[in-house]
Amino acid sequence: MKITAIEKYGLRCLLVLAKVGPDTQLSISEIAVKEGLSVPYTSKLLSILRKAGLVQAERGRGGGFNITRKAADITLFDVLTALGGPLVEPHHCSRYTGNLKECIHIDRCSVHDVLDSLADYVQQFLTDTTLEDILKENKTVYLKKDDYKLILTRAGVENKLTG
Amino acid sequence: MKITAIEKYGLRCLLVLAKVGPDTQLSISEIAVKEGLSVPYTSKLLSILRKAGLVQAERGRGGGFNITRKAADITLFDVLTALGGPLVEPHHCSRYTGNLKECIHIDRCSVHDVLDSLADYVQQFLTDTTLEDILKENKTVYLKKDDYKLILTRAGVENKLTG
DNA sequence: ATAATACTTTACTTTTTTGTAAGGATTTTA
DNA sequence: TAAAATCCTTACAAAAAAGTAAAGTATTAT
After folding, report:
1. Do the Cβ atoms of A56 and A66 come closer than 8 Å?
2. Nearest to A111 among B15, B104, B162 (CB)
3. Nearest residue to nucleotide D4 when comparing alpha carbons to its C1'?
4. Which helix (H) or strand (E) is A66 found in, with range?
5. Is B109 within the bounds of a domain?
6. Over the stretch B60-82, which tens digit does the pLDDT of each residue have?
7. Does residue A51 lie within any of the structural domains?
8. Partner-chain contact A162 B140, CB within 8 Å
9. Cross-strand pairs, A67
10. Do B3 and A87 touch (CB under 8 A)?
11. Nearest beta carbon to residue B134 from set A11, A111, A148
12. Is residue A106 part of a domain?
């Protein structure tokens, strides 16, 4: 489980466009220079972002790319999903079947369950974090399990929260 | 950002050993059959787990693998780190430098900052989840941001918690 | 001792991902 | 209408990851 190169570089390219806002266009080569990437590679990354609807392109002389929404309206989840797909494949158990036709745990897969929980958990962070947060270096504060237990106890709130 | 095949299959092999406990040995071929994997591949996965100290091997007739600690004492973080390394490379910015010698954002990299935060956040889930939790299908409940904000407000607790 | 069992290591092949190259299509400007 | 600028598409090359194969080493039972 790693952040891939395409995810990181793609995010960086999009942040360049987020910084200048939806009303400003930049060309591929401008973005490439800003990020220290090759023009063809930058082109590929922007193409992925365009197909996901995060940026728009205009061709011809004077053309370029602009971000389609403002930074506060794009989450890290939107970006990473566009660039790298979901953390857990939707049909994970039918894809990773080892040597067999079907996953040997197809009936009840505790591994798949826990990975799905992890994916949900990660998604919460990603959807809570917008490009604006990244540009402004806002850090979202998450509560550690022990902290909230303590607070709930102190506050006399019963600890029966849904996940 | 994806769970890799090695991470998933490696976890499954370790769970087989976790289920029978530290005092029971199973051979590679027994594990391979249980998980529907090839013997050589299973062998490779167990070798990785052994080098990480999560399982022990005994050679020769009657040999096999056993888990070194009981399920409650091994976390998902231990397992996934052994099989796939860290989510964010420690020297991420010096590795992903595009075409340049150094990352163009080396002085102050907001992307790296947010990815580090994500890694910390993920690590919390992974260290909170043990192999026993997976075997028993315990689900750890995490509080959503909006939920705890509401509770804190109701309880009159000031919302200044450290991450 | 020797054969059988079972792990270990190294190297190789296949597949996937990353990154590049080249020609094509579109728009603007003169 | 032609040239210049710019994005678009497809195919290819290189690198990394996944998975296999084969020969080696250690242990036990006979």
Report:
1. yes
2. B15
3. A61
4. strand A64-67
5. no
6. 999 999 999 999 999 999 999 99
7. yes
8. no
9. A55
10. yes
11. A111
12. no
CATH number of the domain within which A50 lies: 1.10.10.10
CB contact under 8 A, A137 and B113: yes
**Chain A residues within 8 A of B156 when measuring between CB atoms:** 155
Burial of A62 (0-12, 13-18, 19+ CB in 10 A): exposed
* Residues spanned by the domain of A59: 5-85+130-136
Write out chain A's pLDDT in tens, 163 residues.
Answer: 999 999 999 999 999 999 999 999 999 999 999 999 999 999 999 999 999 999 999 999 999 999 999 999 999 999 999 999 998 877 666 666 777 777 777 656 788 889 999 999 999 999 999 999 999 988 766 666 566 666 666 666 554 444 3
pTM reported for the whole predicted model: 0.87
In a domain, B124, yes or no: no
- Strand intervals (E) in chain B: 55-58, 64-67
Q: Please report, for residues A31, A84, A141, B149, the alpha-carbon distance to residue A3 in angstroms, rounded to integers and kept in the order given.
A: 21, 9, 21, 30
- Closest C1' nucleotide to B6's CA: D18
